[in-house]
Amino acid sequence: MNSSPVDATTTTAWNKLAAHAVNFTPDLRGWFAAEPQRAQDLTFQIADLHVDLSKNLLTAETRSLLTRLADEVGLRERIEAMFTGEHINVTEDRAVLHTALRRPAGASPALHVDGQDVDTDVQAELAKVFAFADKVRTGEWKGSTGERIKTVVNIGIGGSDLGPVMAYEALKPYVQAGLEARFISNIDPTDLAETLHDLDPRTTLFIIASKTFTTLETLTNARLAREWLWRELVASGSEIKDDDARRAAVARHFVAVSTALDKVADFGIDPANAFGFWDWVGGRYSVDSAIGTSLAITIGPENFRQFLSGFHAVDEHFRTAPWSENVPALMGLLNVWYTNFLGAHTHAVLPYAQYLHRFPAYLQQLTMESNGKSVRWDGSKVNMETGEIWWGEPGTNGQHAFYQLIHQGTRLVPVDFIAVANPAHPLQDGEADVHELFLANFFAQSKALAFGKTADEVRAEGTDEAIVPARVFSGNRPSTSIMAPELSPAVLGQLIALYEHITFVQGAVWGIDSFDQWGVELGKELAQQITPAVSGDAQALKEQDASTRALIDYYRAQRR
Ligand code: F6P
Fold first, then answer.
1. Whole-angstrom distance, CA of residue 392 vs CA of residue 359
2. Ligand 1 in contact with 370 (CB < 6 A)?
3. Euclidean distance between CA atoms 340 and 176, whole angstroms
C-alpha cells in the first residue's frame, strides 16, 4: 500500500475532469430547474447528519468522474489500510488508528496491530479515564486540603488543546453544574496569568496533556502552574515546607495524559495519575483518546461514550458506503474538484451554532497540518495544488464581516454551513422565536450564494442604473449545508469524524502522508537556537541574519 502513491494526474478520471473543467459553466439556477430531483438526489443522511450537497458546482458527470478518480487512486484500499493498521504514516513508520479509539467494546473481529491487542488496550484506558472522571465528578477525588475539584485546567497545545477546548465549548450544556474547564495553550505568559488569576488552588486540578511530553509550551506552562499551585496554596493557608509536601500537593492537583509515561514521572506526576494513548493516534486526531480527559470529567463518561459512538457511526459509513452515497468521500472529492480544477484556494466553515465557535480553529489544525504538504508519501514532489486554507467564524457574525467577499468577490470560496434544528437556549423576542430568526439567515446565505440576483432582478426593484452592477450577485457560489437535530455529544463526534475522513480522502488523492507534520519542526529548532540571542548572548546574536538581528536588537532596546 505504501510503495508509491498513484499519481492522480496520470489517471483517466483526472484527465477527463480537466477536460470537463474547461467547458464547465456552473448554472445552479438552470440545474435546479432542469432536475426536480436534484435536492433529493444530492442530500444524504449519515447517522444524525443531514447533508445537502445540491448547491455544489457539480453535474452528474462531475460526480461520476470524481468517484472514478477515487477508484483510480485506490481510495478504497487506502481506507482499508488505515482501518486495519497498516503503517500509512510512512515518514514516522506508524499505523493510523484513531478509528480504533471509538470502536465499541466487544467489536468484532478484534483488532490486533503490530502485536498489540488494540481493542483491549483502548477499553482499559477508557475505563481508567472514566473511573477518574467519576471520582472528580462525585467529589471523591479531593484536593490537598480536602476540598472537591471545581475547575479542571487543561494545559496542552495543538491537538492536545484544540480538540478538548472545541468539544468543551460545543458541549457546554452537558457540563455538570459546579464544574468548569479552562485551557492554557500559549507560551505567551498572558495566557496562563489570565486563566489562573481568579482560581482557587484548593479546588483546581491541572491536566497536563502532551502526546510527546516534550513540547516546550506545555512543559513551560506546566512548571509555571506547579509554581502557582504551591505559591497559592501557601497564600491560602496551607503549609508546604518541604519536597514531600510539594509532591503531595502535585499528586492531588496534577494528572497527565501522554504516550510518554516515563517523562510524566520525571515531571513529578505519579504514573498512577497518568492516562496513556499510543503513537498511532495523531495529535490532531486525539480528542477521542485520553486527551479528552477534561471533557470526560466535565460532561461525564456516559456523554463521552455517546461522543465516541458518533465518531464510530461515521467511521462505519465511510468504510462501507458506496462512493455514490459516501458523504466524506463525496465532500473530499468535491474539495479536490474545487482546489485542482476550479482554482479555489480556501474553504470556509461557517457554523450557525454559537457553541461551535472553536470548530473552525479545530479544523484548521486537522486539515492544514494534515494536508499542507508539497511531497508525496514516497518523497516525490506533488504536481498539483494540495491543502486549502481552512477558515471560518460562526454565523451570523461572519455575515457582517467577510461574507461580502464570498458573495461578490473574485475568488471562489466553497463554504460549509452547519446548523442544528433545536437550540440549547430557545428564546423568544416578542412573538419571534430567535432561533428561527437565526436559522432564516443560515437558509438565506446558501440560497443567495447559489442563486444570486441578476441585473434584471436588481433593476426590477427600481435600483438606479448606475449602481445596478454593484448590487448584482453572480450566484453559482458553492456550499454544503449540514444540519442535525441538536448539538449532542453524538452529533459532535459525527461532525469531527466527517471532517477527519474528508481530510483523509483529499490526502489519498494527492498521494500525501496526512499524518506527519514535519513542517512545524524548523521553527521550533530555530526558536531554541535564537533564545540565547534574545537573552543577550552576543555570539548567538552575531550568528543571526541581518533582519532577525535587528528585530532582536529592537526588542532588547525596548524591553523594560
Ligand atoms: O507542533 C505541532 C504538534 O506536534 C502537533 O502536531 C501536536 O498536536 C502539538 O504539537 C502538541 O504536541 P504534544 O501533544 O506532543 O505536546
1. 9
2. no
3. 46
For residue 3, what pLDDT is reported? 74
Beta-sheet pairing, 112-113 with 49-52: unpaired
**Is the shortest distance between the CB of 339 and ligand 1 below 6 Å?**
no
| Ligand 1 atom with least separation from CA of 284 | 8
- Phi-psi group of 105: left, alpha or beta (phi > 0 → left; psi -120 to 50 → alpha; rest → beta): beta
pLDDT tens profile 48-106: 999 999 999 999 999 999 999 999 999 999 999 999 999 999 999 999 999 999 999 99
**Residue 176, all three cell numbers:** 455538570
Q: Whose CA is nearest to atom 16 of ligand 1?
A: 210
Q: CA gyration radius for the chain?
A: 26
Please indicate whether residue 128 is annotated as part of the active site.
no
Is-catalytic flag, 435?
A: no
CB of 218 closer than 6 angstroms to any ligand 1 atom: yes
CA–CA separation, 215 and 226 (whole Å): 16
What is the CA 221 to chain-centroid distance, rounded? 23
Evaluated on CA atoms 77, 78, 84, 87, the torsion sign reads positive
What is the tens place of the pLDDT at every residue in 510-537? 999 999 999 999 999 999 999 999 999 9
Residue 275's H or E segment, with its range, is strand 274-276
Catalytic entry in 400, 431, 461, 465: 400
Share of residues in the chain with pLDDT > 90 (%) = 98
Write the DSSP string, 387-423: -PEEE---TTGGGGTTHHHHHHSSS---EEEEEESS-
Which residue type does 207 have?
I
| Per-residue model confidence as pLDDT tens digits over 343-376 | 999 999 999 999 999 999 999 999 999 999 999 9
The rounded Å distance from CA 196 to ligand 1 centre is: 23
Nearest-5° angle of CA 10, CA 480, CA 49? 110
164 preceded by a cis bond (ω within 30 of 0): no
Which ligand 1 atom is at minimum distance from the Cα of 156?
16
What's the 209 CA to ligand 1 centre distance in angstroms? 10
Mean pLDDT of the chain: 97
Ligand 1 atom with the shortest distance to the CA of 218? 16
Q: Any catalytic annotation for residue 425? A: no
